[in-house]
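In response to the reviewer comment on reproducibility (Comment 2.3), we provide here a single inverse folding case reported in full, input and output, so that an independent group could reproduce the run without further information from us. The structure tokens appear first.
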């Protein structure tokens, strides 16, 4: 299956559930993907599943980053289970390698604000949202985690529908949303409305 947009080179650091499913989804869409995993056992198990796109290396080390070709990456996703590592990975990707977009998985919602203050382009905590961020090429700041409720189990997110977005012109009922996702409001021309399954999304909607 070919990518809907120009194929990108995406480096994912961390081969846990988030990294694994994200890599599978991106490869299926025709993107070039490299997964970096420092734990040898996890890396070997993931190589069995995904093949040669997995590299057993520490994504926090400059030498490993250079070896992975981070200088030509379009997007770096730090998806480890450690927020501190994710922050370091994104900062180094930006400052040392000039990567245009960095996306960090945030495990503790309390860290979200800090990550944004330190210049990480996007912070998210769900595989599907990260995938949509990359696929729809939503620019920095257009997907905004607004709040984490119930100790981070519920996340409220705002997304702008851009001209490139594959959901432009689609009815809400046609969207392939992650399980347990609700669209609670559509903001159009400055007015909020409660959406229904037949509400059509338009460019410029939030």
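Designed residues, in position order:
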């Amino acid at each position: 299956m070919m990518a809907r947009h120009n194929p990108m080179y995406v480096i994912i650091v961390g081969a846990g559930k988030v990294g694994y499913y994200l890599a599978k989804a991106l490869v299926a869409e025709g993107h070039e993907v490299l997964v970096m995993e420092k734990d040898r056992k996890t890396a070997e198990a993931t190589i069995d599943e995904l093949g040669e796109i997995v590299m057993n290396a520490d994504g926090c080390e400059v030498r490993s980053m250079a070896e992975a070709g981070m200088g030509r990456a379009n997007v770096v996703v730090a998806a480890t289970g450690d927020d501190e590592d994710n922050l370091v990975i994104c900062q180094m990707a930006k400052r040392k390698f000039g990567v245009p977009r960095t996306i960090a998985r945030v495990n503790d919602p309390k860290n979200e604000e800090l990550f944004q203050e330190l210049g990480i382009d996007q912070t998210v905590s769900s595989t599907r949202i990260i995938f949509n961020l990359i696929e729809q090429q939503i620019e920095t700041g257009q997907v905004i985690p607004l709040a984490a409720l119930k100790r981070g189990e519920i996340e409220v997110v705002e997304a702008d529908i851009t001209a490139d977005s594959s959901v432009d012109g689609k009815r809400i009922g046609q969207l392939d949303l992650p399980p347990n996702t609700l669209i609670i409001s559509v903001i159009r021309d400055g007015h909020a409305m409660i959406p229904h399954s037949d509400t059509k999304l338009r460019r410029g909607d939030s």
